[in-house]
Amino acid sequence: MRAPLFRGHGWKWLLCAPALTVLLLAASGPLLIVLVYSFLSPGNMGGVVWEFSTEGWFRVFFRRDIFEPDLVTWNQAHLAVFWRSIWLSLQTTLICAFLGFPTAWFIATRPPSTRTVWLFLITIPFWTNLLIRTFAIQEVIRNNGTINTVLMRLGVIDSPIQMMFTDFAVLLGMAYVFLPLMVLPLYAAMEKMDFRLVEAGYDLYASRLMVLWHVILPQVKPGFIAGSILVFIPAIGAYVTPRVLGGGRTMMLGNLIALQFGQGRNWPLGAALAMLMLVVVVGALVLYLRAVNRMEGARRG
Amino acid sequence: MDARVQDTTVKGEIDITGVNKVFGQGAAAFHALTDIDLSIATGEFFTLLGPSGCGKTTLLRVIAGFEQPSSGSLRINGAEVAGLGPNRRPVNTVFQSYALFPHMTVAQNIGFGLKMLGKPRREIEATAAEMLRLVRMEALAERRPAELSGGQQQRVALARALAPRPRVLLLDEPLSALDLKLRKEMQSELKRLQTETGITFVFVTHDQEEALTMSDRVAVMSAGRILQMGRPTEIYNAPVNRFVADFIGETNFLVLPVAQTEGDAAHLTLPGGKRAQALLPDGMLPVTGADVTAVIRPEQATIVEPDAGDMTATVDSAVFFGTDTHLHLTLSDGQPFVLRRQNRPGQQPPEPGTALGLSLAPGALRVLED
Ligand SMILES: Nc1ncnc2c1ncn2[C@@H]1O[C@H](COP(=O)(O)OP(=O)(O)OP(=O)(O)O)[C@@H](O)[C@H]1O
Ligand SMILES: [Mg+2]
Predict the structure, then answer these.
(1) CATH code for the structural domain at B14-245
(2) Over the stretch B2-30, which tens digit does the pLDDT of each residue have?
(3) Which residues form the domain of A112?
């Protein structure tokens, strides 16, 4: 029985060859180009000059004084953008988790026939272009937008509240855009959840809060993990939302990279920044999954 | 012990009066429980027995606090518990599905109730160890539920529900997922635990044999009502109606004319013309000559020479059951009759077509209400 299987092994992988080729070209190819570009010199009108240089990577972290090129300082502007990107993405993930949990819970506890309707409603925003959804938010929060107009008419405030071009605006936009990505995996985890365990918890003298903490959360944890990854990764690379709602003042990594390929005309710097973002994302993912596994391992003892 | 079992009017551990449970409203309303009255004594092994969908689980859930009764009152240890959630009742449940927490070890599962009650850690650990000993699972304390067999999970569920020392333990068909051998084992295990802990057990099953062998008292339910409540022997020997007689054990239903009534007994005319005395249910006074339904258990008739007994019958078939043989017979008036005879070494079952005499045990024949 085993021999033919073994003999088969020699050529079977060939069947995967087309898929592997596409993967190689579509995923690794562009990545490789970006990596190579990050070690070249910038061209005058954008593009790259084929001349090896580490200046792109150097400028990611440091800056040279214009008049004294030997005077090297940390590139505070870039570091601020890194920090803001990570911080805003973390906050977005947390906000989505806090809003997503009750939403997913609500859907998961509806009768099965109506659940599909709620899920459908959750996915409706996906059908609309991201740019349009972002402009819709802008319409709500800009100085003479819906909220400010209503509040001023009602006499609650005298002058408009500045919401556009703040971290708040970016957070609002990102939370709105990414919320379904948290709700769906959470819902999937809750749907699989055994609600009889909730009853068992109540039966064993647990209060509502204790049941949530000791019975429900451990069971929907895989949903939280998947949701956090799905929200955090696109959030850290977000471009449209910070561009429209944050303007030039609250730039995120995505905008900084785009700037280098556009007005900045420094493709190697942009490429190095892009690679850095990849490292940050993969690093965060590895740390996160390790932490989760360690917690799991500790409990297993 | 017997006094407690017999006197059902004594106020006990659980007192249920006039409880109704209606699911849904209007035209879709469904009466899952109708006028349930029952009182369970402290330390009693009480069983709810009935076919699927008769409301056993619903009644258990009402006692546990997962469902609120639509009307009626429910007292546990004398205190009205209406409106109290399951976490505020001194009652624990062993769920049919076990419902063990998959992310906790066996020991953590068992300690959960005490932890929620805010007991100190040392006490929790000591009690968990004691419970593990009680259900003979010491070696598996650090396993997860997924790493246990069905019978082991069942024991953990039992230990978890017993650990907080509830006044009452509710068990919803806890053995139905187990195979026959394990099931027998767990039956005696359960009985042992109940005697050792002295906790009141309310046990749900649809297996009549399980109910008869384990219980101090049994309530037979059908379509949301309690039809009969009593000791297993009472239920078996004196079923109040056709449903109970049919549901508990095997029984023969004979339609026979009344020859004469006197007091709480009647003389019925058997096929072939002989008469036999039959017990009448309370308050029933059948007219002489009218047909009534009488029941007799298959083991309460014995084979005698033809013409020597109360009735004559011919053998249709014989089915061998190991300890005994079931003889399917036809009485002289054409009614079917099943007889159970204990097997003895060297005894051959009678050939089909053989004519037999049947002798009925005195007091075995009972008239049913229906
Ligand atoms: N939440 C509910 N809503 C509507 N009807 C219900 C609900 N729960 C139970 N019922 C109905 O009440 C009746 C009794 O159900 P219950 O679960 O108590 O039966 P059971 O005796 O435990 O049966 P089984 O032996 O199959 O477990 C059933 O007809 C069931 O359909
Ligand atoms: Mg049930």
Answers:
(1) 3.40.50.300
(2) 433 444 444 688 999 999 999 988 888 89
(3) 88-252
Domain with CATH 3.40.50.300 in chain B: 14-245
For A51-62, the DSSP string reads: ---SHHHHHHHE
- 8 A C-beta contact, residue A277 and residue A110: no
- Using CB distances shorter than 6 Å, the residues near ligand 1 are B 23-24, 30, 32, 50, 52-58, 206
CATH topology of domain B250-367: OB fold (Dihydrolipoamide Acetyltransferase, E2P) (2.40.50)
- B87 to A202: CB separation less than 8 angstroms, yes or no: yes
**Chain A / chain B CB contacts < 8 angstroms:** 66
Interchain CB distance below 8 Å, A205 and B102:
no
Q: Which residue of B has its CA nearest to A205?
A: B87
Tell me if chain B has a CB within 8 Å of the CB of A202: yes
Q: Which atom of ligand 1 is least distant from the CA of B96?
A: 27
Cβ <8 Å between A196 and B95: yes
Higher pLDDT, B80 or B264: B80
DSSP code string of B108-171: HHHHHHHHHTT--HHHHHHHHHHHHHHTT-GGGTT--GGGS-HHHHHHHHHHHHHTT--SEEEE
Residue of A nearest to B93 (CA): A203
Atom of ligand 1 nearest to the CA of B50: 21
H or E element that contains B317 = strand B311-320
pLDDT in tens, B127-179: 999 999 888 888 999 999 999 998 899 889 999 999 999 999 999 998 887 78
Task: Pick the atom of ligand 1 nearest to B204's CA.
Answer: 22
